[in-house]
């Protein structure tokens, strides 16, 4: 699988800093070519330069892009496709955690991920001239369980996880050549987790700052987990939950539930 990444072209959102930047580094180290979008032009250009110096400028390109702006996101993805020739791996990573800006957070964390997924789906699907590919969406530990500290954020991350695994279980996914995976990290040491206050996270004043700081995993841990996920031989339906001291992997697959599922079975056999 390591060898095949050398021929993989990647589009990733939110890559200027934090976890997205570390995923880019991991992919480039395995020989991939990457295009990344980010809303921040300064941090994006700096990351492009840093990664180009490390891995060669032909292998890295930054595009300024706000994933909540549908037409601009679509245009950026098309520019990425034109630049790379083909996108084999789409990573929808851009996200924020800010409960006081909850509508924006839903637009970014969920609508942005849906849009990025559908753009990649249309590009990759084998029945429309694509050659298949992988779509990895970034959820969170709180996409698997509830949190009173970040209820809206947790809702967006549940939505990302459910949306992604629902697509993984769809009839015809194999024929389309598509595979979907979800990464669910716990706290990691990035700006998103470091810059918490009562506007971003409810009741955070109840949590001692030094206690919170102790729970942050290094970004390298999430990079290792991300690389495991994208290099699985069979990734479709995979959910990787990354905790401080363990990684829990599970796989969602369609099962025949009997009487309630005949319509699904008919759709499956006719597409
Ligand atoms: N840091 C953590 O503890 C965890 C983070 N995550 C998720 O990982 C992803 C990355 O988070 P971090 O690296 O920690 O955050 P970060 O704040 O360090 O980086 C996020 C990146 O997304 C970009 N971005 C923000 N709004 C954007 C927009 N509208 N369009 C395009 N790019 C935009 C930012 O400019 C930044 O470069 C997020 O989806 C987050 O929810 C999940 C679990 C834990
Ligand atoms: C107390 C939570 C403060 C926020 C911590 C910073 C970043 C978190 C980013 C996430 O995506 C959340 C990931 C995992 C959540 C782990 C624990 C949640 C807290 C426990 C609880 O709500 O009871």
Automatic annotation (TrEMBL):
Its EC number is 1.1.1.141, 1.1.1.232. PANTHER family: 15-HYDROXYPROSTAGLANDIN DEHYDROGENASE [NAD(+)]. It is an enzyme of class 1 (oxidoreductase). Keywords: Oxidoreductase. This is 15-hydroxyprostaglandin dehydrogenase [NAD(+)]. InterPro entries: NAD(P)-bd_dom_sf, Sc_DH/Rdtase_CS, SDR_fam. GO terms for cellular component: cytoplasm. GO terms for molecular function: 15-hydroxyicosatetraenoate dehydrogenase activity; 15-hydroxyprostaglandin dehydrogenase (NAD+) activity. The keyword Coiled coil does not apply. It catalyses: resolvin D2 + NAD(+) = 7-oxoresolvin D2 + NADH + H(+); prostaglandin E1 + NAD(+) = 15-oxoprostaglandin E1 + NADH + H(+); resolvin E1 + NAD(+) = 18-oxo-resolvin E1 + NADH + H(+); resolvin D2 + NAD(+) = 16-oxoresolvin D2 + NADH + H(+). The keyword NAD does not apply. It comes from the Eukaryota. Catalyzes the NAD-dependent dehydrogenation (oxidation) of a broad array of hydroxylated polyunsaturated fatty acids (mainly eicosanoids and docosanoids, including prostaglandins, lipoxins and resolvins), yielding their corresponding keto (oxo) metabolites. Decreases the levels of the pro-proliferative prostaglandins such as prostaglandin E2 (whose activity is increased in cancer because of an increase in the expression of cyclooxygenase 2) and generates oxo-fatty acid products that can profoundly influence cell function by abrogating pro-inflammatory cytokine expression. Belongs to the short-chain dehydrogenases/reductases (SDR) family. It comes from Elysia crispata (lettuce slug). Pfam families: adh_short (PF00106).
